[in-house]
Design goal:
Strand content: 35-45%
Helix content: 10-25%
Order of helices and strands: EHEHEHEHEEHEEEEEEHEEEEEEH
Structural class: alpha/beta
CATH superfamily of the largest domain: Probable inorganic polyphosphate/atp-NAD kinase, domain 2
Strand order of the largest sheet: 3-2-1-4-5-6
Number of strands: 18
Low-confidence stretches: none
């Protein structure tokens, strides 16, 4: 029996209505559904509850209901066990999500019939080294960011690529992004858009205090080391815009390719460039004046 895990963002408006429709849809087609225990309790489906271990053991595919943030957090959770994920967009741009609500029924039919393929995406591992010990480790699908916190004072960062000193950035921060994340924070900071089929790492400074500073694209096989200096201790490490870790001035941040890959459900008629054009146009239309 096909078993699907549903990962809704319970804070999204009308998510309860969409979830109820999907539960009934899958029930009528003899597809088993699992929700996390917390979500099952909150949304009123105790009979569908599964703990983390059960979900990772039994589900064959995950479906998120929300925006890119929901998809990012879910992908990080299930990537280590190789479960593919399909994103249903209930947010704004939804660069990473595959399905818009008007096409939901058709998309679910394709999933049940196996009419899709799996696209693998590069993930990163970010480590904080303090006094020669790794004290923090997290995976990222979009980006890893070292930046100043609430203070307006810049930080100065030395960048090493595979042990070679590469650049000295006086800036508000530095974004280390995957090609998947190139349409996220990196793009807004002036970084390039990179096709996610290219397994590369993009380094983009945030508000650099220099006229000649540009983004740098390196191989996925290369290790990134960031050493920074600042006159204050308000410096943070942010992973996928969701998890934040406070850094000290003598910390070293290491970023390298993860051994895991995020696995996205894609439909055969979809095109990255068509999606890119549609989403960028939507961003312009949603601009607040």
């Amino acid at each position: 029996m096909l078993t699907i895990g549903l990962f809704p963002n319970t804070k999204k408006q009308s998510v309860g209505t969409v979830l109820a429709w999907m539960v009934q849809y899958f029930k009528e087609r003899n597809v088993k559904i699992l929700l996390s225990e917390a979500v099952a309790e909150e949304m009123g489906y105790p009979e569908l509850a599964g703990n983390r271990e059960k979900m990772q053991r039994e589900i064959m595919l995950g479906i998120t209901l929300g925006g890119d943030g929901t998809l990012l957090s879910t992908a990080r959770e299930i990537a280590p066990v190789g479960i593919p994920v399909c994103g249903v967009n209930m947010g704004q741009l939804g660069f990473l999500t595959e399905v818009e609500l008007p096409q939901l029924s058709l998309a679910l039919d394709k999933i049940i019939n196996g009419d899709y393929y799996i696209e693998e995406r590069l993930m990163l591992d970010a480590m904080v080294v303090r006094n020669k010990e790794t004290i923090y480790l997290s995976s990222a699908l979009n980006d890893v960011v070292v930046s100043k916190g609430g203070f307006s004072r810049m930080i100065r960062m030395k960048l090493f690529v595979d042990g070679q000193f590469t650049a000295d950035y006086p800036a508000d921060g530095l974004i280390v992004a995957t090609s998947t994340g190139s349409t996220g924070y990196s793009l807004s900071a002036g970084g390039p858009i990179v096709n996610p089929n290219l397994k590369v790492i993009i380094l983009t400074p945030i508000c650099p205090h220099s006229l000649h500073t540009r983004s740098l694209v390196v191989s996925e096989k290369e290790e990134i080391k960031i050493v920074f200096r600042a006159t204050h201790d308000d410096i943070v490490l942010t992973v996928d815009g969701q998890t934040v870790y406070k850094l000290l001035p003598d910390d070293v941040v290491l970023v390298k390719r993860s051994e895991h890959r995020a696995r996205f459900v894609r439909f055969f008629e979809s095109s990255y460039y068509q999606t890119l054009r549609t989403k960028l146009r939507r961003g312009d239309e949603n601009e607040i004046i």
